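For anyone still unconvinced, we reproduce a single protein record, the chain in one-letter code, the fold tokenised, and leave readers to judge:
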Amino acid sequence: MEGRHGQKKQVFTPEGLKAKSERDAEQVNEFLQLKAQLNKVQESKQHDNEALKVTTAILRRTPDYYSCWNIRRNILLEGFLKDVDKETADKIYMGELEFLQENLKLNPKSYYMWNHRRWCLEHMNNPPWHKELAMVGKFLELDARNFHGWDYRRYIIRQLDQQDKGNEDKILERARGEFEFTTTKISQNFSNYSAWHNRSKLLTQLVASMTEDEKEAVVENEFDQIKNAIYTDPEDQSAWLYELWLVGREDKHISILGASVISFQPLLEIVVAFDETIQLRQPFTVMTRVSDDAEPTPLAGEWKATGSDAGLGSVWIFQQSPESVYGTTVEVVVFPDDVCGQRAGSRLMAPVCFELETINQDLETISGRLTRLPIGRNLMYDVSKRIGPVPPPDGRLDHPAVTSPVASGDDQQQQQQHQQQQQSPSQQQPQKQYLVTSLTRSSSAQDRIDLLEREISAVRELMEIEPDSKWPLQVLSMLLSEQRRTMSLFSKRAKEMDDECIELQEKLIQIDPLRQERYEDRRTQLVFDRETLPLLRDSRTRFPELEFRTGDEEDEEVGSGSGRGGEKREIDQDKEKKKERVAPPPRHLDLSMRGLTHIPMSSYFIHLETLNLDSNAITTTRFLRNLLSVKHLVLSNNSIKRLEGLQHAPSLAFLTLENNLIGRWEDFVSGFVFWGEGKLSRTGATVQVKMGGNPLMENEGGEYVLEKRWDDVGVVGVHVQFKTDEQIAMEETLAHDQARSGTISTVVTEGCRRVSTTVVEFDAGPATGSN
């Protein structure tokens, strides 16, 4: 039997266990006595040698007693170190370092001892940094995977680099030495995540001053190192994680899916949907023009996210202030620095503008949809205040101020060539550099694609040898997802990749059940992305951003999308110049029986009227907060335990939660706690809610008790059915059969429950003794 890092665990006999228990009890008693002495030291504010001995005795036994370290530092500062010269102080600190070194041999993974060691060094006048580097090297010889030691080693190197600040050659030479140290440790044992991690930090520093050719040579050497490791032990995660870091990931761009008006009366309310959760840095700009000849003016109001946190969300609602007045036209402009993505590196690449003409205040006619406008001098708001020079009013989007830094393949290259032809040599901008690996860039997008294809082939080759190894499967899924980002969402190859990634997650669930939930969540994200494609399209102005499909565009099937892999998408420039009224997006979506564990991004659903999520594994209804248009929602046969978010569903007319896991009255009623604050109650709408098949029925006293309690709640316009349709149908069938057979059913009420008593009439034949 092995413990951590391959160390054998000690096996005790029954007699050995008894002796160990006795020793442990004795040590506990000793510790309690020492702790009592420590309390006296603290109360009396002792700072002498006896007080220090008490802390020494405790910390030898229990080095993770953090409060004792604080007391020890206080004893040193207020006693031994008070009013002494620098040389004497350094000797005292050296004594502490020796004490720590002895203790670290016994417990090299104590956070508090390593922290105390840093404290000593940082308070010394002449800290022995080089001796410390040698010391930690010896510790890593004993346990090369001790991440405390690796972290401390990086700390020492930072201090040495700080001493040599300005001497770049010496700092670089030290980094090369550390890089060779990681090579040595990895060659001794590939399963050393700390060494791989340190290697990634050092590589970033070492290649900073290299040419692209030199960087490529270094990267190729790293891939060879990785290949040796994964073929030696494909089940170890260290080299696989290092490979994913080396391959790198492109930054995720935030997309504004669309904007809609959800209310005109009594005040204007506008919703803007993003494809990820964002934080508002500053309110989006809202402008209006009261009349055609009037000057544009800001429309006062407040932006809030749906849900419990008004400052964080994927759907944002603008509520007009009562004192403000909107005119015939309203524009909403979102600038990149207005938003901050929740995921690291995600950002909005360019300003986006939406326009609403308020003359026709019929939501059914205009479908609540706002028109997306090109950014130019034709807007009511002078965007040049925020982004600098803007293109002419024709709405062309090839101006550097409004073009996304990351665009699509051939379209972007042609655009750059056109710009360079129009500029003098001194005005020409540097050529776009594409990500190839986390350390290298290239002027050709194809280099990234070639690298991904090569690494995918290498993983597939290993999978032929190790078909049931979980790490090759996980890395293949990640690499395929990264490759998918180089092509159109709607290409045939992208759909094939989606399907393969989903199959990989299903296989991982089978071979690695301990991490089933993680794979299920990953699978849910992949299925969700695939199944919601009919709702989306590539942005006509900024690929690879997304926006809602509108229903008026031509079918975007195989080859119609643009991608960095060379797939072309022709854009009708004349059509882009028009401010056309778009048709409604798709209104219905069936995601039943897809195995979804959650809804990754419910902002995709704000235009839906019908959503079927029957027979999944969904556990929460919080996503209801973003279903602003849904009228018919099916959530039966899931794993929901609590009802939430209903107050944010202003259009809901039918909701079925049959056969879920709602077992308490409080978890059901919680969905209606803030009902009076939601729009649904204000509209006077009637909502049918089906709750049959939940443990609630059995746990809370049955149908009639629940109906009585619901009547007491008094939520107007909400009708709840506590039995399933199947139960009602069975009861009706039974009653019909009983009526036909002559069975008489009566009902006797006992307290708050109804008990059914059935009396069956039958012909007993002639009485005994009759003639």
About this structure: Residues 394-416, 418-427, 554-583, 746-771 have pLDDT under 50 and may be disordered. Residues 729-760 form one domain. Residues 14-44 form the longest helix (31 residues). The chain has five domains: 19-210, 253-388, 441-586, 589-723, 729-760.
